[in-house]
Recover the amino acids of this structure.
RNA sequence: GUGGGUGUAGCUCAGUUGGUUAGAGCGCCAGUUUGUGGUAUUGGAGGUCGAGGGUUCGAGCCCCUCCUCCCACCCCA
């Protein structure tokens, strides 16, 4: 037997899981604070439900097999297509429909740094509304998540499919070649203008005359979002689709400014995601410190996808956060909360005879809502304190013979190295005051 | 999936032109005389050298195959 987890799949040991759960709690809180309730769907879907939604490339990455009833099934590849299935299957749902879903998805890709075959996505979607308010709301939620996670130095780069369509038209592409062109455009800042020019020339049907205008539009885009919009309307504003996109982004920009998050969102005409089903706004989030790590949170407007099951177009917009990638990034940057124990306080076990006193105190602490751990056997105090210190437990309570007689406890702050004799009630108050656990 | 690298104690790594019982630091465990941590000090446990085959009198070191992880391409959360 090979004792090894599958390639691209990973374990989270308790210490890491505590950190990951703290992140997930934050994400959940932010979603609910913005009025989104949770949805849960199965890990497995009929293959038909998932097939034909991700393009040929995506389809090859599905984990697909036959179950014991010989049903052709596949593991969910994302959370958006299952959402579409739910909307089509449950006629009682009315719009606008909001939901969030935090769940693992599976993709049989080649694993790499920050890329796994099993990873948890955190999705919020707003279905049934096509408006600047809906667009802006996604960015409001997205920035709130990043802020709640304590992440400084990130940028949500925002674009619109209408801009991309106009750029394609500049080089004479309408349908064929668009995908190849947009892929190159997406890599523009990586490969540079010269490589872009030479590689773009190989796309069949391309009109080289427009390439410089595209480069001018993208490369000369200013930093400031407002200025980008002005720049875009002078360069491609005569294109009616682009004009519409610019107008929408202007309306969104007003709401971002009103929300105080405009600084975190930057309009960037080279963001080309949305090769599959995106129809309007698209966005990707990069960490300033790890630009090569890939997007940690992205999404966009997809007004056509839900119609595949419903038989009519339903506008929708969503955003998806990859918690495992973000976790890996924060770990690399050493930005994760270092606490490795959920306990606020450890009650030492002074002696076997006094174990009862420790258990009694622990019971009272827990009744007061304090996360409490009792050292599980009688060893010298030195050992017990060492354990508390290594585990990052901030307080230790010792009840020895003297304390038991006096009805008190020794209350020690591990961080400050100070100790005082208190009543248990006083100790409980002290812990409740100082601990900085997030309120549930 | 393609190309390049990598793989030695729990972790980070050393290991000389192939030559006897494979090392260090950190971590772990136990002491430094018995009611208290982070420092110091002493001792200890722990490795079929990624797996399998081959060359050789002899392989951690050379060759082949497979696997892992890393980097690039590709794609994405």
């Amino acid at each position: 037997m090979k004792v090894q987890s599958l390639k691209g799949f990973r374990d989270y040991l308790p210490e890491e899981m505590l950190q990951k759960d703290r992140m997930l709690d934050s994400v959940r809180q932010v979603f609910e604070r913005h009025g989104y309730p949770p949805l849960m769907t199965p890990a497995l879907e009929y293959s038909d439900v998932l097939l034909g939604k991700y393009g040929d490339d995506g389809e090859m990455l599905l984990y697909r097999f036959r179950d014991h009833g010989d049903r052709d099934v596949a593991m969910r590849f994302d959370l958006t297509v299952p959402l579409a299935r739910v909307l089509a299957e449950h006629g009682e749902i009315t719009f606008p429909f909001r939901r969030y879903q935090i769940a693992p998805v599976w993709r049989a890709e080649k694993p790499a740094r920050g890329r796994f075959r099993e990873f948890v996505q955190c999705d919020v979607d707003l279905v049934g509304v096509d408006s600047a308010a809906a667009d802006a709301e996604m960015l409001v939620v997205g920035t709130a998540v990043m802020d709640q996670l304590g992440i400084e130095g990130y940028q949500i780069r925002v674009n619109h499919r209408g801009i991309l369509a106009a750029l394609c038209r500049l080089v004479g592409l309408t349908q064929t070649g668009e995908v190849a062109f947009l892929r190159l455009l997406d890599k523009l800042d990586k490969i540079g203008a010269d490589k872009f020019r030479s590689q773009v020339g190989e796309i069949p049907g391309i009109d080289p005359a427009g390439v410089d205008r595209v480069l001018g539009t993208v490369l000369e885009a200013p930093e400031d979002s407002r200025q980008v919009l002005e720049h875009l309307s002078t360069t491609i504003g005569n294109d009616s689709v682009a004009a519409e996109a610019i107008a929408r982004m202007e309306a969104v920009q007003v709401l971002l400014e009103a929300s105080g998050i405009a600084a975190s969102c930057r309009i960037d005409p080279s963001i080309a995601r949305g090769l599959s089903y995106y129809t309007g706004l698209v966005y990707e989030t990069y960490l300033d410190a790890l630009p090569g790590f890939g997007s940690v949170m992205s999404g966009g407007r997809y007004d056509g996808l839900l119609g595949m099951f419903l038989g009519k177009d339903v506008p929708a917009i969503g955003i998806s956060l990859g918690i495992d990638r973000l976790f890996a990034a924060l770990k690399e940057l050493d930005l994760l909360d270092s606490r490795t124990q959920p306990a606020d306080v450890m009650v030492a076990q002074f002696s076997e005879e006094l174990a009862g006193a420790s258990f009694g105190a622990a019971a009272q602490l827990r009744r007061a809502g304090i996360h409490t751990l009792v050292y599980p056997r009688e060893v010298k105090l030195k050992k017990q304190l060492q354990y508390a210190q290594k585990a990052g437990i901030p307080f230790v309570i010792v009840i020895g013979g003297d304390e038991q007689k006096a009805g008190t406890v020794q209350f020690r702050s591990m961080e400050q190295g100070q100790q005082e004799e208190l009543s248990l009630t006083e100790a409980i108050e002290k812990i409740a005051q100082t601990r900085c656990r997030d309120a549930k």
Summary: Chain A has a mean pLDDT of 88. The two ends of chain A are 43 Å apart (CA to CA).
